Amino acid sequence: MSEISGKITKSDAEWRALLDSETYRVTRQAGTERPFSHPGFPEGEGHYVCTCCGATLFDGNAKFESYCGWPSFSSPGGAIDEYRDASHGMIRTEVRCQGCDAHLGHVFNDGPPPTGLRYCINGVALKFVADA
């Protein structure tokens, strides 16, 4: 593992050894898990970190139930980068981890007030850490 400009970089073989096959497919190959396939996550006191590198991504208080099939957040709470995604015949905004460039999901403009945003994130890309 090495850090270049603050990013954690690993070889493909290192990521494959570290992650299960579904997490690897989603986070390292920009895949999407099936909707409603990941167990629910708590809302409230705690935060969500990147499964790959542990960088803080979202505050638990920003989580809400959108009924879309993936964990949803109204605002980022940490190390998030956004990129234009023109794949699959549509224009979207992809969300990646700043710490390791893991694909997390996408952000849409159909969320609740006050931001109006819905960060639609693959559950396998997240781990919940309760506040002490």
In short:
This protein has helices at residues 12-18, 21-29, and strands at 2-4, 7-9, 46-50, 56-59, 63-64, 72-73, 80-85, 92-97, 103-108, 118-121, 126-130. With 132 residues, the protein is mostly beta strands. The protein is globular, with a radius of gyration of 14 Å.
SSE map:
Layout: E1 2-4, E2 7-9, H1 12-18, H2 21-29, E3 46-50, E4 56-59, E5 63-64, E6 72-73, E7 80-85, E8 92-97, E9 103-108, E10 118-121, E11 126-130
Antiparallel strand pairs: 1-2, 3-4, 3-11, 5-6, 6-10, 7-8, 8-9, 9-10
Name the overall outline. globular
CATH fold label? Metal Binding Protein, Guanine Nucleotide Exchange Factor, Chain A
Q: How are helices and strands ordered from N to C? A: EEHHEEEEEEEEE
Q: Decide which structural class fits the backbone.
A: mainly beta
Distance between the termini: 29 Å
Task: State the CATH superfamily name.
Answer: Peptide methionine sulfoxide reductase
- What number of domains? 1
Task: Specify the biggest β-sheet.
Answer: 6 strands, antiparallel
Side by side, the strands of the main sheet go 5-6-10-9-8-7
| Low-confidence spans | none
- The total of helices stands at 2
Helix content: 10-25%
Proportion of residues in extended strands: 25-35%
Radius of gyration: 14 Å
DSSP summary, beta strand count? 11
Give the integer mean of the pLDDT values: 90
Question: What is the C-level CATH assignment?
Answer: Mainly Beta
Structure description:
- The chain is mostly beta strands and 132 residues long.
- The chain has a single domain (2-35, 44-130), classed as Metal Binding Protein, Guanine Nucleotide Exchange Factor, Chain A.
- It is built from two helices and eleven strands.
- It has helices at 12-18, 21-29, and strands spanning 2-4, 7-9, 46-50, 56-59, 63-64, 72-73, 80-85, 92-97, 103-108, 118-121, 126-130.
- Strands 5-6-10-9-8-7 form a six-stranded antiparallel sheet.
- A hairpin with a 2-residue loop joins strand 1 and strand 2.
- The radius of gyration is 14 Å and the shape is globular.
- The model has no long low-confidence stretch (mean pLDDT 90).
